Amino acid sequence: MATCGEVLVKLLEAYGVEQVFGIPGVHTVELYRGLASSPINHVTPRHEQGAGFMADGYARTSGKPGVCFIITGPGMTNITTAMGQAYADSIPMLVISSVQSRSQLGGGRGKLHELPNQSALVAGVAAFSHTLMSAAELPGVLARAFALFQAGRPRPVHIEIPLDVLVENADALLTSLPVSIARPGAAPAAVEQMSQRLIEAKRPLILAGGGAIDAAPALLQLAERLGAPVALTINAKGMLPASHPLLIGSTQTLVATRALVAEADVVLAIGTELAETDYDVTFAGGFEIPGALLRIDIDPDQTVRNYPPALALVADAQLAAEALLARISAQALPEREADWGAARAKRLNTELAAVWDEPTRAQTHFLQTVFDVLPNAVCVGDSTQPVYTGNLTFNPDQPRRWFNSSTGYGTLGYALPAAIGAWLGRTANGQQPGPVVCLIGDGGLQFTLPELASAVEARTPIIVLLWNNQGYGEIKKYMLNRDIEPVGVDIYTPDLVGAAKALGCTALAVEGEAQLRAALVSAAERQGPTVIEIDEHLWQQALAL
User: Fold this and answer.
1) Domain 4-173: which CATH class?
2) Which fold has domain 188-348?
3) Which residues contact 518 (CB under 8 A, 6 or more apart)?
4) What is the SS3 assignment for 132?
5) Cβ(383)–Cβ(406) below 8 Å
6) With bands split at pLDDT 50, 70 and 90, how would you rate the model's confidence at 329?
7) Record: fold of 358-542
8) Which residue from 23, 62, 172, 190 has the least number of CB within 10 angstroms?
């Protein structure tokens, strides 16, 4: 007899799942019955929050949903933070959990791991949560989840399976097949209207978000055809190469960039929420789009949030960008203003380069050093000062190479487990693995420090760059800027190099650029994780800034 849990594993295989993250418990052992004989790889984090962050990082580098097996009760309360981060950043994540037997749901009998309503608990951090009331429902609810991942706005999905359903006879489902859903194309009438607006524009501008990553080739050609400067959100970094003359980076929160946006007569916003963490990270307000706003998004609800559009198109970003490019390429374009396009982007970048303070320049040099030694690296960041700096000053040459938890939900402790998932994601689909760097502060690392043991166990050779400023430096800076006496930010900082060694990692502290370069070269050749500590003050002193 094949149980519901065993058929679930087979169906996940059929949907192309190669990796699962989870901590087995007495309520989930039946999920593991079929996993032992499956080609699906399993990684055990040290906390369910880590499982969710690993799944998040895996999804971002592989382009495939991250999958978690989670116990009922504390497992689900633990993973909700990670689901919140994935929800905010539109990351596909499938969380499969157990729950009490059907006759005991909501009974309040003090059963192990019991919650009054587990599905309701996660409703706010999931696209939907479904309780499987019979094994027969399994193919349908999985099809619903993967339809969302394939053709909608991807977000976490939660499926909970009662303990008695997990062991239910599911022989009849062994022949179930996966469902494949095509992404929505661009309506010709809307494409025609948007094309005309862009063709007639004298000063067009493009704002691209993480939802448009797969549209990068078409969007690049479209920008070049229109002579349109391009601003990218944090999750969209790399859609244009760093040296491209039309790239204006991810500086929409700065006055000079806002002035450029205000000059545009037509703005194409594609795959972006136009939300605070990309457009107003200083919380000053004042980001305005006075020109005609054209919005493209796969989520109809999102096309009218934050900034109402003159025209909106609900479609897959890649298909929409390709349709616009084809239509615009077929027409002769009027001459653009001479001081727009590349000339205007160059002027902006010159203005910005002159305003960076000493810490920003020191941290930018740090990031440039890392990518100089490891040009093919993926950098997974936490909410730490060099990450915020890099969001403004650093531009990778390819997408999916720079992402962090400072966007959207903004949780601490994300980078370490997410980097583990990201490394595994780089090996998905037969890809050659490349270096994965975790950029995290001493405060953030203490949130998820035990996951270093997970990295050792999973043999993921991640490189942890520990930016140590002996506390919550970014928050302290924010307090001081608001004339608040710092409280609660100068926390005790343990010997994190020693802790990393105790957890099985190679760990060392470096002072200055030469030591950092040597440490990175050695770390890239190692089979296991490496922790490299950089003292913020010593780094800046070594550069004599």
Assistant:
1) alpha beta
2) Rossmann fold (3.40.50)
3) none
4) coil
5) yes
6) very high
7) Rossmann fold (3.40.50)
8) 172
